[in-house]
Amino acid sequence: MTWHQNFTIPRKPGLQFFSFSTFLGALIIPRAHNQKTHPFLQQYQTLSKNPHTSLSPFLSPTAMPKASTVAKPADSRLKRKGAGTGTKQSKKASKDPNRPKRPPSAFFVFMSEFRETFKKENPNNKSVAVVGKAGGKEWKSLSTADKAPYVERAEKLKEEYEKTLRAYNIGLAEGKTPSEEEGSDKSKSEVNDDDEDDDEDDE
DNA sequence: TAGATGATTGTTAAC
DNA sequence: GTTAACAATCATCTA
């Protein structure tokens, strides 16, 4: 599988999909027809001005995102966050804001620390994408033993989440939210909460 | 001004 | 079993 086999342009309403060869052709055909810009390129130029679309495949084959990322074009994120229709979307749309947030995975626990470190080493960086990439790379370089503390913390958070979720479900059954019952506020970062808990434990 | 975007991995939940 | 959604982060941009 080469990168261009996975080549698609993020779908936008009213925008067609184009193959890689179409893209190359678009570069050549206008010259052959003495045109300034092929219609496809016009669409590409429009698209490229829209920051809500990912054009990294155009710009850097080496920076080709993994298949799962490519398979989720920009508008899928729009759908995901939006209040549209459909199974998963309706799930999101009907989601109770009081429902406990999912606990961070070991990777996310690691990332919370890594962001701090990265920020100190790269104070000028403002891109979450750069931090994400660097964090992912760093995470993969860690051994199982290195990951163990993060896994342990993630498991601890997961247990807390399951407790909270149980309380939430009980509250739902009784017609009230856990936050009303316990006054719990899980809107804060669970990772940070854990850090605070650890601090409290240490004291 | 609210909300989407980017980029990552692991987990959850819906099918 | 498969796969989309989502968990955190925040400067930047659009509608």
Report on the structure:
The chain has 203 residues and is mainly alpha-helical. The protein has two domains: 3-69, no CATH class; 106-202, no CATH class. Helices cover 62% and strands 0% of the residues. It has helices at 20-32, 39-48, 56-59, 67-70, 74-81, 87-93, 106-121, 128-141, 144-174, 178-182, 190-202. The longest helix has 31 residues, at 144-174. The N and C termini lie far apart (54 Å). The structure holds a DNA duplex (15 and 15 nucleotides). Residues 52-105, 170-203 are annotated as: Disordered. It comes from Cicer arietinum (Chickpea). Belongs to the HMGB family. InterPro entries: HMG_box_dom (IPR009071), HMG_box_dom_sf (IPR036910), HMGB_plant (IPR031061).
Which descriptors would you attach to this protein?
203 residues; mainly alpha; 2 domains; 62% helix; 0% strand; disordered C terminus; DNA-binding; nucleus; chromatin binding; HMG_box_dom_sf; structural constituent of chromatin
- Uncertain spans: 1-94, 177-203
Separation of the first and last Cα atoms: 54 Å
Largest sheet: none
Rg is 23 Å
Helix fraction bin: 55-70%
H/E topology pattern = HHHHHHHHHHH
Provide the domain count. 2
Share of residues in strands: under 5%
Number of helices: 11
On the 0 to 100 scale, the average pLDDT is 57
- Protein structure class: mainly alpha
Let me know the number of strands. Answer: 0
Global morphology: elongated
GO molecular function: chromatin binding; DNA binding; structural constituent of chromatin
Organism: Cicer arietinum (Chickpea)
Keywords: DNA-binding, Nucleus
Family: Belongs to the HMGB family.
